[in-house]
What does this fold into?
Amino acid sequence: MLLITSGEYYAGQSLALQLLQQPEFQGKVRVSCRDTSRCENLRKLGAELVQIDHQNQQQLEKIVHGIQYIVLAVDPEDDCVSSTENIVRAAAQAQVKNVIILSQNGVEGSQQKRLRELLEIEQRCQKHLGNSNWVIL
It folds into this structure.
């Protein structure tokens, strides 16, 4: 099972749409959304939607349970750093072994708030994931 985060935003939504069109991913894609009503198109294509509360660690652990791969598409919300870190903590606790972090080029040394947030997310993910297989795209 594959988990894609931030399904109601561009990166998560686009990736989920592409994967759900491939027969080998049917029934194997879970998408987390803050508001699942914004992701109903993904459910119609076969995704399992889960409403996420990034501050509820017990719920996050349930969402990542049984997941082999997580694609962390970072949402544009103000709490994106702590939200993403909470998901990563849950993934580490559940021993998810494969994590793909979607980021952007040029985060190092940038003065732009969004890019600084992405750099912080990358650093926190590396700290928590340790021996897992992870990659930053």
The CA atoms of residues 4 and 16 lie 7 Å apart. The longest helix spans residues 113-129. The helical segments are 10-20, 40-44, 57-64, 80-93, 113-129. The radius of gyration is 14 Å.
